Amino acid sequence: MSALPNEAVEPSAPDGPEVEAVAAEAFMRQMVEEYRRPLHRFLTRLLLGQADLAEDLVQETFLRAWRNAEALAADPPKVAPWLYTVARRVAIDAMRARQARPPEVSLPDLNRVPDADDEMDRVVSVHAVRLALGKISPEHRDVLVEMYYRGASVAEAAARLGIPEGTVKSRAYYAVRALHAVIGSTESP
Question: What is the count of structural domains for the chain?
Fold first, then answer.
């Protein structure tokens, strides 16, 4: 093993770019600490209370300041005017961008939106049934009116019409078939 002489090793002085980077970082920390809140209040007022957007724009302002840190550090009295000017321009750009694209619209729940065709279908169906009721026998029509229009049970329809319940059931069955046959013939071309 070779022995090295006991020489005092001095730490090397930091290079120029490293010193500049540390100084720029310290300058930015100081600038953010001093101007973050005032810029946020300024942008919130400018944006009519949109605090979330104001926070984003403060970040954008400091990003631009970081890119120009060397020039800003060289002239400290101009930092505040520069920051407020950049913040105002960033806010104007953001508002223009929002106006340039169409506003976001949420789609309505299609299960709750009434369909215009449904009303017309209902009107056509009612008209077809009215025409068809005039074409079936009066006995069948009376049973359908009692059971489907007035909502009577088989027993109630039998009592109102003065016929047995079995007859009401039989007439209802044949009346519906007759109604379908008449409606089918009116719908065909």
Answer: 2
